[in-house]
Design brief:
The chain is mainly alpha-helical. It folds into two domains: about 45-180 and about 315-355, Cytochrome Bc1 Complex, Chain D, domain 2 (Orthogonal Bundle); about 180-310, Cytochrome c-like domain (Cytochrome Bc1 Complex, Chain D, domain 2, Orthogonal Bundle), CATH 1.10.760. The protein has helices at about 5-20, 45-55, 70, 120, 125, 135-145, 145-155, 165-175, 185-190, 200-210, 270-275, 295-305; strands at about 180, 225-230, 245, 315-320, 335. Helix 2 (about 45-55) runs antiparallel to helix 7 (about 145-155), helix 2 (about 45-55) crosses helix 8 and helix 10 packs across helix 12 (about 295-305). The relative contact order is 0.16. The structure holds heme C (HEC) (2 copies).
Length: about 350
């Protein structure tokens, strides 16, 4: 018997086709509110305060000389101001130190995404002999002997025994309060026509059109949270050509001290040139980008657009969801604002007072 398509198969196929057509094209979206807090680690003031103490306390490193803030410096948007991280052995790490603003919205950690959650990430720098070099069990022993921490853990986690799990929960809760938005682009997307300069608007048209950046840098974080090979040259002895890395969020892109996983590029112009050439790696590996043929003026416009991504809001101080019942993404957050800066490449923060405790 000849096979005849049945009506429901046809309907299904039709639905699929329409669904495909209706699938949303990637677009830019404003960012605001609070990142999602996991149900098993709801935020409280006491926990966030404790996480902040731990983040900046060298009790968490082998020689008591380093803490998370040694590399993720508060006054440098939680970066280190270097092209790559600096190891305990007084030599460069193979990757740059990413900033931690908006890290609560990241869906995986590290440039290769090898860790999924902020909680899971916390033990990694301790276990790394070039970063903090301390057995997490030893960290817990130290903390249990410290009267200040015994009291603070008692307030943050009443009735619970101090474990590394709780250390991680506290630090992760603090990290989720570090946000950056209310950029010129956010204002523009929310309807403020005057927020972007004419050049930034032309840059936005390039970003979402001819230059194809939107393919990977989209949504409120300007990342698809996925991994791609974009032809970034590896350094001798480090990394392998063709490796895919996490699409970096472009929020605060002009505040960085170096660009790409290995800090290979020192300013935003080099990044634009890289994309314009269709990649920088000499290897035969085919990157997921192609030459763009941008004029010098178009490159300027792209830079103007990228400089509209510097946020003015940097810290949730209250208003994040409280208690396990309130963990929705985008819950309203009360915020501390600063005056913003003009977005010079690699510029340090004008007025770091908003980052004060
Ligand atoms: C020696 C410098 C150094 C220290 C100390 C350090 N980090 Fe990092 N951090 C880095 C580098 C470099 C990376 C990127 C590593 C990679 O991708 O493989 C990173 C990545 C991260 C990430 C992932 C961010 C992202 O966007 O993927 C988080 C979160 C983080 N660190 C938090 C911490 C915490 C919490 C501590 C303290 C417990 C800490 N770091 C200590 C240098 C450091
Ligand atoms: C095929 C996906 C893809 C496209 C298209 C793409 N990017 Fe990227 N972008 C990435 C990935 C992946 C990274 C991280 C690469 C790395 O770390 O080595 C990245 C990194 C960057 C960075 C560096 C951020 C940092 O802090 O290191 C900038 C800036 C950037 N892209 C801008 C752009 C611009 C501008 C365009 C359009 C001209 C563009 N990207 C097109 C995937 C893409």
């Amino acid at each position: 018997m000849r096979w005849r398509p049945r009506p429901f198969v046809l309907l299904f196929a039709l639905g699929f086709a329409i669904g495909g057509l209706a699938a949303e094209a990637p677009r830019l979206e404003p960012l605001s509110g609070s990142p999602p807090f996991p149900a098993d680690n709801p935020p409280t003031e006491a926990k966030i305060r404790l996480g902040e103490e731990l983040f900046f306390d060298s009790i968490l490193s082998g020689g008591r000389r380093r803490n998370c803030g040694t590399c993720h410096k508060r006054e440098l948007h939680f970066m280190d101001g270097l092209s790559r991280g600096w190891g305990l052995d007084e030599s460069e790490l193979s990757r740059k130190t990413p900033g931690l603003l908006n890290v609560g919205w990241q869906r995986s950690m590290f440039f290769d995404g090898r860790v999924k959650t902020l909680e899971e990430q916390v033990s990694k720098p301790l276990e790394n002999h070039r970063e903090m070099s301390l057995d997490p069990a030893e960290a817990v022993e130290r903390i249990r002997r410290d009267p200040f921490y015994v009291r603070s853990f008692g307030q943050a986690f009443p009735g619970e025994e101090i474990t590394f799990d709780l250390v991680a929960k506290a630090i992760a809760s603090f990290e989720r309060t570090l946000v950056s938005y209310d950029s010129d682009l956010d204002r523009h997307l929310l309807g403020d026509e005057a927020a972007l300069s004419a050049s930034a608007k032309r840059g936005m048209a390039l970003f979402t059109g001819k230059a194809e950046c939107i393919r990977c840098h989209n949504g409120p974080m300007l990342t698809d949270h996925d991994f791609h090979y974009t032809g970034v040259a590896e350094r001798d002895g480090h990394g392998q050509a063709g490796t895919k890395y996490k699409t970096q969020s472009l929020r605060d892109a002009l505040r960085r001290y170096s660009y790409m996983h290995n800090g290979r590029m020192m300013n935003i112009r080099q990044v634009i040139e890289h994309y314009d050439r269709g990649g920088s790696a000499p290897e035969s590996m085919q990157p997921e980008i192609r030459p763009l043929g941008l004029s010098e003026g178009e490159k300027d416009d792209l830079v103007a657009f990228l400089s509209s991504l510097n946020g003015r809001v940097h810290r949730l101080t209250e208003g994040f969801p409280k208690g396990p019942e309130a963990v929705a993404e985008g819950a309203p957050g009360a915020v501390v604002t600063d005056s913003g800066d003009s977005g010079e490449s690699g510029a340090a923060v004008d007025d770091p007072s908003y980052l004060n405790r």
